[in-house]
User: Fold this.
Amino acid sequence: MTRPEVTRPELVGAAVTAARRPAVAFASAACTLLGTVAVALAVLVGPAPELAAYVSETGASGGATVWAYRIGLLAAAAGQILLGAALPTVSRLATGLLVASAAATVLSAGVSCRAACPLPPFDRVTLADLVHGGASIAAVAGTVFAMLAVAGTTGAPRTLRGISAAAAAVALPLSAVAGLALLLVGRSVLMGAVERLLLLDLAAWVIATALTLGLPRAAAGAVPAGEPAGAPARGRRAGPAGRGGTGRL
Assistant:
């Protein structure tokens, strides 16, 4: 006598999440793209378009492009939160890191630095300068660690892991160079170029990951919570009993 199949609550929840994942993922990609474009345009037409300037100088208090810069950062933060919501349940660490990164991005948008965004050890700074600089660094670090978390999650779809590993391979050396340049060189063409490349890499990772999650195959490739990678689906007929099969699992 065949036992009645039991519906597991976590599998139902995972199915609901999978059904909504494409819309949430595409919204993440759209927010991130709009935010990146807004910040890029603000930098190009802002008070400090030269390569030696920090990106944050565009949002310095009193600047003409401050609101375009802030709106761009808020859109990027929304993209991070939406990406975290769209990630498979096995990527909870990455989701938490993205939410933390988004919170730091919002703080960075809300607290402006002064003109030229002075940072230690070469400049005298105010509390607002330190808060803005620290929040910006934390936002970047959170996203880089989220990349690494997805790349190292064995239950995540292989495509997502590959995208994250490739993006991290670019982000890690750029982050190292940016940190050394900040401490040893300060505001310079080197620092400005590395900062822009790093931010573009982060935005590209969020957009590529979100678009991949929006595809049905990526959504179906997620492993529900509590199921090990490669585990057979419950209720699937593996073969007829008595002929080398195992009957119903």
Notes: Residues 21-215 form one domain. The two ends are 14 Å apart (CA to CA). The chain has one domain: 21-215. Residues 9-45 form the longest helix (37 residues).
